[in-house]
Amino acid sequence: MAELTPLDEKLAEVLGLAQAAQQATKQVAGMDGAEDFKGDLARMGEEAAETERRTDGYIDTLDGRKTAIREKARETKGEAVDMMKTYLEGEEEALDGFEFLSMAEAGELCHWEIVQTIASTTGDAEAKELADWAVDVQGKHIANVRRAYLELAVEEAQEMAEA
Q1: Is residue 110 part of a domain?
Q2: Which residues of 86-119 are buried (b: 16+ CB within 10 A; e: fewer)?
Q3: Residuewise pLDDT in 10s, the chain (163 residues)
Q4: What's the domain of life for this entry (predicted)?
């Protein structure tokens, strides 16, 4: 198997995280109380799919390392999905789902910022352009998730006050 560079490893991780994010947004959309946020969740899922397509397209240009990168991406996706299942096991409320998404989206942003920094430092203009796009997308995802969990927290607080 090909030896992966640190950039290759991070690209594999962001690819796997984008794949897992598509599953996570669908799961959260099906939780109790998520109705008002289904549009945002659908958009986030579509953007995760676009992130996957763009990242995979870039990986296609990396001769001799594609298979190893995609294999690592599968591992990352599996780990992220396992984490989601563990965190959300037995949970039905959207607030719990958005709490999980807050961690997942922050993790994706962190990974993309690392890709962005490595690509910038090494002069990989194509990877940097991809990362610049993804960092912007992830920032919007974090803002959407934050808005949702805070709205849901207000609703929960109001229910507590009424009880």
Answers
A1: yes
A2: eebeebeebbbbbbbbbebbebbbebbbbbbebb
A3: 578 999 999 999 999 999 999 999 999 999 999 999 999 999 999 999 999 999 999 999 998 999 999 999 999 999 999 999 999 999 999 999 999 999 999 999 999 999 999 999 999 999 999 999 999 999 999 999 999 999 999 999 999 999 8
A4: Bacteria
**Does the residue 121 lie in any domain?**
yes
- The whole domain housing 135 covers 6-162
Query: Is 1 a member of any domain?
Result: no
Q: Which amino acid is at 59?
A: I
Determine phi and psi for 93, rounding to 5 degrees. -85, 140
pTM: 0.94
Distance from C-alpha of 43 to C-alpha of 141, rounded to nearest angstrom: 9
What's the total number of domains in the chain?
1
CA dihedral for 110, 113, 119, 122, sign (positive or negative) = negative
Residue 152: give its domain's CATH number.
1.20.1260.10
**Does residue 63 lie in a domain region?**
yes
Place of tokens 């990168």: 69
22 and 49 Cβ atoms separated by less than 8 Å: yes
